[in-house]
Amino acid sequence: MKVSAITLGCKVNQYETQAMLGQLQQAGFTICDGPADIILINSCTVTAQSDHKVRQTLHHARRENPSAILVLTGCMPQAFPEKAAALSDADIVLGNSNRSSLVENILHYLSTHQRIVDIEPHAKTFEPMKVTNFYERTRAFVKIEDGCNRFCSYCIIPYARGRVRSKPLSDLRPELQSIGAHGYKEVVLTGINLPAYGQDLGLTLCDAVETACAVPEIQRVRLGSLEPEQLTPSVIDRLAKQQKLCPQFHLSLQSGCDRTLKRMNRHYTADEYRTIVRNLRHVFPNAAITTDIMVGFAGETKEEFQESLAFAKEMAFAKVHVFAYSRRPGTRAADFPGQITRAEKERRSHRMAATAQKTRTAFLQEQVGRTEPVLFERQKETGVYEGYTPNYTPVMVASGNILSGKILPVKINDALSDCCSGTLDKTDSME
Question: Residue 408: beta bridge partners?
Fold first, then answer.
């Protein structure tokens, strides 16, 4: 039987989808991109819009594939089991726990044709999971941590993911070695609260980074989203010793206003965040600092928004994901006074996005004139390839040769709206 997958949400979900597809392939199923007998939908629930997207995806999949078996899994069923169980388009509903039961549940459904809802409580240890079959060709995502203990007042994720659990190095090391053996040049370490890696094992994120950098075939190691306050000077100094670590850091900000940060139950001030950025830029030359910024949080006054806007401009982020606060049932912020209207959230989103675009443009312009090693990922159009520098600057290059999967030196000549263009530097080879 043929199986296809739809992944909604973060890089952790992407990894988990690949791991689940590997389980199914080992059980004798055929993985495909087109029409399938079984469609796996790995869900996100970070915002109300995410839940809407899940329902929309289910409806579309059912309409286009009326006879297919639809499997809904991921964060949405785990956080809201009753709502997920009520989604009649899904034949099998699973949570984030006990992924090893996926094959068993599918086989059971095939024999009985009875709808299955199987959502178990979170495990207390990291669920064994690894990618055994690879469907991407240039970079591999590796989940090393799950769960979050922070309980930000707006966030449903601790309920969807549970407490912090970390992948032991004894499991991580052979998985990374396998990835290197499959020809991957770049690995992205991901997690729900990535800097919390190792808290349950007596380790730190640095241990995982060093393990990845030690694999000879892996030339680049990149980090997923980071909670900033855990990047202490000692952690930053230790990370800086790893030559393979890419100088791109996605530091979740959410707000540049201390009063808003306190209501959010974030664990840093704007000044502390500023210091962390300064420390990173000091030891990682030409580092790209990217972030998430929320607008319209409950109680956010116009003055607080202006403060956050000014801070975003000051930080000169390379890229910003701007999103409006989404009220999530079960979180403390859902009952906070001073909820902002949708129209006002949209106005603030547009203003913050405009500021973010200006800093993005300035960052791209700063890359012009540099020669950087670019890992080429895909052909954008005939004879034009796109790849990324170590600091994750997207670069397009025209070439008559196949560049995908290669690391080559590129002279960056121009900054466009959301990327740079350049030419291959034929004086050297970084492959």
Answer: 374
φ/ψ of 37, rounded to 5, equals -80, -30
CB contact at 8 A, 120 and 102? no
Q: How confident is the model at residue 430 (pLDDT cuts 50, 70, 90)?
A: very low
**Amino acid at site 21:** L
**Partners of 288 in the β-ladder:** 248
Tokens of 254: 């959410």
Here the tokens at position 227 are 């909670």
What's the longest Cα–Cα distance across the chain?
A: 65
Burial readout 288-321 (b: 16 or more C-beta within 10 A, e: otherwise): bbbbebbbbbbbbeeebbebbbebbeebebbbbe
What is the DSSP secondary-structure string of 253-315? -B-S-HHHHHHHT-SS-HHHHHHHHHHHHHHSTT-EEEEEEEES-TT--HHHHHHHHHHHHHH
Per-chain mean pLDDT for the chain: 93
Any idea which fold 368-424 has?
OB fold (Dihydrolipoamide Acetyltransferase, E2P) (2.40.50)
DSSP lists the bridge partners of residue 424 as 410
> What does CATH list as the number for 139-366?
3.80.30.20
Residue 205, SS3 per DSSP: helix
CA distance 368 to 411: 8
CA distance linking residue 312 with residue 254, whole number of Å: 10
What is the rounded radius of gyration, in angstroms, for the C-alpha atoms of the chain?
Answer: 22
Domain 2-118 has CATH 3.40.50.12160: yes
Residue 130: name the closest of 86, 98, 174, 193 by CA. Answer: 174
CA 373/CA 410 separation, integer angstroms: 6
Look at residue 197 in the predicted model and tell me its pLDDT: 96
Phi, psi of 384 (to 5 degrees): -125, 120
118-155, pLDDT tens digit by residue? 998 887 888 787 776 665 667 899 999 999 999 999 99
Of residues 193, 194, 278, 189, the one with CA closest to residue 236: 278
What is the structure's pLDDT at 137?
A: 63
Domain boundaries, the chain: 2-118, 139-366, 368-424
* Secondary structure letter of residue 226 according to DSSP: B
